[in-house]
Amino acid sequence: MNKASPSIPWTISLSAFLIVFAMWSPLYVISPLESIIREHLAISYTQLSLLYGAPMIMVAVLALPGGLLADRIGPKRAAGIGAIIIAVGTLLRGLADTATELLVFNFIYGVGFGLAFPSIPKLISAWTPPSQTGRTSGLFNFALPLGSALVVTLTLPVVYPATGSVSGTFLVWGIPPLAAAISWWLLVKEPPGLKRELIDVSHARLRSLIAEVIRNRNVWCLFSLLFLNEFFMNTMMGWSPALLQLKGASPEMAGVIASIIPWAAIPGMLLMPRLSDRLGLRRPFIWGPSLVLAITALVAIQADLAQSWVVMALVGISIPTRFITILTMLVELVPREHVGTASGLVFVGYLGGAIGPFTAGNILDLTGSFDRAFLVLVAASVAALIIAFRLPETGRRVIKREILTAT
User: Fold this and answer.
1) 1 within some domain
2) What are phi and psi of 100, to 5 degrees?
């Protein structure tokens, strides 16, 4: 039974916001600098996509160990260890002189990301009552679109000219993760009543816990949805500037248009969870965006630059709506003591965030066009729509109806 506190201390809310910002914002530094990095390092689009996707590979590999770690030692220490590694990896990127060094440092950043991120759903589950999981997930993860929007918007016109180099740009964007790590260790405390739960998990129930999570069909559905969501999201975020330049935009204009995705995601991240809580339904906030994204990806193939603003806005609203609903349903469908481990398994789906950009980069190298890549995005969106209907509804309206029916 979830005995979460009715209110989360502001220190924990602030620190969780900062650490989510620190996890995601460094990922998107490469996107606006694509043409500069390719020329500077003399690499192909496929190789560039590997640099971009390296952190997501490590998130996929280490998400389950990160979730187990959160269940064993608590979200404060698990996320705190990850935050330190994120700070180290992102700052080291500013010292990279070769593509190999940059790749290695991106992997280090990804190690911290993978260890830290599964602690956020466990923190939400432990501190928040069920009636507020949607809005709390939205509040914490609001840092995701804000961080990516600031990075995509400011990197090329402001940070890169101010530093005069790719290395200097990486160093500047390594400062927020450092601040987040310090804030986390100074301000965050473990959720109330967690000590006994951690002892049970670490000594008596670890093997059975893993087995129970693996047998949970809903966990695998959420894994598939997250894989498809990240496949779409990182393909669009990673390659939109290149796509727009192929349509005739300058690098600066391409960055501005691409930044519409994270800017549009901000109101979606804040408002859609509240709307979901108010309506008492979850599944429409997965299948609805999936339908919109399928149509949008199909239209994007022929869209001109003027129409691309609308395409980016629709993607920006739909992706975070689906993403935050997946995280909310994860908290609602899994017992509290399993949330860390289940999060780790679901977050292996972040592998889609590496496979998507790599697939698109390979297609661009082979054909010189993104048309086939967008057809793949259409198929991914249709698959997500189908999987959404395999999940049970967890919204308040359906649960209340079931209770009334039972009585």
Assistant:
1) no
2) -65, -45
